[in-house]
Design goal:
It contains 18 helices and no strands. It is mostly helical. α13 packs antiparallel against α18 (about 345-365).
């Protein structure tokens, strides 16, 4: 389910040029599709816990998948920007219930091993999400239809419902219900980790959104080569999360996050300060390698600091992702309009430093607790 969600989150970028041409949209209106999705994530992060409280976690998971499918079908059939942007909002609003529920369910089922579960789940979702632009290219080449890249994958929940129905019933006993699911139940330490999630997700999407432009205008790659080179960052993310899922039981969460920040910082400065393509591409890959584990491990620590209120913690973590995706890439873009992209990218260095400081403070405050090793 998490991979299903990640696929649709990452397909909006590749299909935007086709939507732009098909509907005759401006760049600004085209960009509203992703903005609408992110705004839906924010609302889901604020209100998703009420859906969980009303329908339960498993049912909320299927509601989220149904919302994603409905939004995708409206998107591919929409003939006006009002419909297609509204469809993107619907995908973010209801579909993001998946992002709310999955960490909570994994935490219920795996307890102290939730860090491993979250890392492995995010590894799979990263791998699948890299297939989104490839699927768009294949469907356009074979069927001259970018829409099929959404329609085919929209059938996945039907297959999952059939394949996993027995596993779902066997696992339901281990999935708890948060009886204290209220907006005021989360402690201050959780919100410190929450802020770190905002910054970490901001870094990831600033790299995803703007690295192609940086490689083209800063390092002189052609537009097509720069776009394809972004796959190096995604490949680094996959390998980093795979490694992180193995390291999480060998070193403490806090040390793993700090190590990941140092790796990401080393890669980013190599990328940012490069004067030709090779070191820039190597730096891009290493940056992905380091950034990969920031979100899943910090999320694991945040849930560990939630006093057992996993459902609300997952909802608020989705809010953090929505705020990050909605705002920081836009801020970087505005800075790039004011100055060159090379200077604007300095915001990523500040974000990395911010995560490092916040995690250091949170680690100090949480020393008596067990969440750093869970």
């Amino acid at each position: 389910m998490l991979a299903f969600y990640a696929y649709f989150l990452n397909i909006l970028g590749p299909i935007t040029p086709y939507l732009k041409d098909q509907l005759g949209l401006s760049y600004t209106v085209s960009s509203l599709h992703f903005t609408a999705f992110a705004f839906g994530m924010v609302i889901s992060g604020l209100c998703g816990f009420m859906v969980i409280k009303r329908f339960g976690k498993i049912n909320s998971l299927w509601i989220g998948s149904a919302g994603m499918v409905l939004g995708a079908l409206i998107l591919v059939s929409g003939k006006t920007p009002l419909l297609t942007i509204g469809a993107s909002f619907l995908m973010g609003l209801i579909g993001s219930l998946i992002l709310v529920v999955v960490p909570s369910i994994l935490s219920d089922k795996y307890g102290e091993n939730r860090g491993v579960a979250l890392s492995e789940a995010n590894t799979i979702s990263s791998f699948v999400s890299t297939g989104a632009p490839l699927m768009v290219g294949v469907m356009v080449s074979l069927a001259n239809s970018w829409q099929m890249a959404l329609v085919i994958v929209a059938l996945a929940p039907l297959l999952m419902r059939f394949v996993f129905r027995n596993i779902e019933s066997q696992s339901s006993a281990s999935i708890q219900f948060d009886s204290k699911l209220t907006p005021t139940a989360l402690p201050p330490l959780y919100w410190l980790f929450w802020l770190a999630i905002v910054l970490a997700v901001s870094i990831e999407f600033c790299m995803v959104f703007w690295s192609a432009d940086f490689l083209e205008n800063g390092l002189g790659l052609s537009k097509i080569n720069a776009s394809q080179a972004v796959s190096l960052f995604l490949a680094g993310m996959i390998l980093g999360r795979l490694a992180g899922s193995r390291l999480v039981n060998r070193i403490t969460n806090i040390r793993l996050v700090l190590l990941a920040i140092l790796v990401a910082a080393a890669g980013f400065f190599l990328y940012w300060k490069a004067t030709n393509a090779l070191p820039g591409l190597v730096g891009l890959f290493v940056t992905g390698l380091g950034i990969a584990n920031l979100y899943p491990i910090i999320l694991s620590m945040a849930i560990g600091a939630s006093n057992g209120n996993n459902g609300l913690a997952g909802a608020r973590a989705t809010l953090a992702s929505g705020v990050a995706i909605f705002s920081l890439p836009l801020v970087l873009g505005r800075l790039a309009d004011a100055v060159k992209i090379q200077q604007a990218y300095g915001i990523v260095a500040l974000l990395l430093f911010g995560v490092f400081v916040i995690i250091g403070i949170a680690g100090f405050l949480a020393q008596p607790k067990r969440i750093l090793t869970q």
